[in-house]
Design brief:
The chain contains 7 helices and 6 strands, in the order H-H-H-E-E-E-E-H-E-E-H-H-H. By secondary structure, the protein is α/β, with parallel strands linked by helices. A hairpin with a 5-residue loop joins strand 3 and strand 4.
Length: 271
């Protein structure tokens, strides 16, 4: 931003105002084509590609949540609710939940200027209402910080890794999760200011995040790949979810795990 102000000879507030207008224009014009839930035909392709990669059927996306650091403005009480003590000091953070398809393209992004601080991945998940978008019989893949649901498959707890089925299922889920982690790594690699303390007004941050995801998607569609990987800022300190998942979700996960081992055994026998 400093280089931009020097180049155009503008004061900070004026330069930031113009930048935000550009961000808003990009979102208004491009969001419909580059950051939307995929249509039925596209979801069929995505499910096939995920299944080819993992053996798990009906996956329409893989989910991850990371945190952005904020530079709180003095006397702005809105930042008080965004304090996060998880990282050894009082940081002001804002979570970003992203769902990507089999190619690492963002298809859903949730970021709200009033949702931050000590919110866990699970709390952010329910606030996002992403479950309302998932079709009947479809699932998304998440990590251990998300709750097991009929529509959300997560790894078995480490304490339950007592069988070949559990181990294989976890390995396949982690393979799918790597796609979304790499998407976030590319995102902050392309727009490195996301790794620093963001100084713009809180209400504008969600728009900026979505625009960065839109531009990331355009790069992916045009095959403008980023070959250098970057860590995704400060991550998340939430602990794995320990709850009471629906029996139907437990049964569905067990069934998938069993079918993965059976398929592996059949292919081993054939080969």
């Amino acid at each position: 931003m400093i280089e931009g102000m020097r180049k155009f000879g503008l004061p900070p507030q004026t330069f930031q105002k113009y930048c935000l207008e550009v961000y808003q224009a990009i979102e208004d014009v491009l969001k419909e084509n580059y950051l939307e839930w995929p249509e039925t035909e596209d979801r069929a392709r995505i499910k096939n590609e995920f299944q080819e990669a993992s053996g798990i059927p009906n996956i329409v996306g893989t989910l991850y949540t990371t945190y952005l650091r904020l530079n709180p403005k003095k006397k702005d009480k809105r930042y008080d609710q965004l304090i996060n003590k998880c990282f050894g000091c009082d940081l002001h953070t804002l979570p970003v939940q992203g769902l990507v398809d089999s190619k690492g393209i963002f298809i859903d992004v949730y970021c709200h200027h009033e949702v931050g601080g000590m919110k866990t991945d699970e709390e952010v998940l329910w606030m996002s209402n992403i479950s309302m978008k998932i079709g009947l019989g479809e699932i998304i893949a998440g990590g251990q910080r998300y709750p097991l649901q009929d529509w959300l498959m997560v790894p078995y707890p480490r304490s339950n890794l007592t069988s070949e089925e559990y181990l294989m299922f976890n390995g396949r889920i982690l393979k799918v999760q790597q796609i979304v982690r790499e998407a976030f790594e590319e995102l902050v690699g392309r727009w490195s200011f996301l790794k620093k303390e963001i100084e713009v007004d809180l209400t504008n941050i969600p728009t900026i995040v979505r625009v960065c995801c839109i531009l990331h998607n355009i790069c992916k569609v045009r095959k403008d790949e980023l070959h250098v990987k970057f860590s995704t800022n400060i991550g998340n300190c939430a602990t794995p979810v320990v709850g009471n998942p629906p029996p139907s979700a437990i049964s569905a996960r067990d069934s998938i795990a069993k079918s993965l081992v059976e398929s592996w055994a059949d292919n081993l026998f054939v080969s």
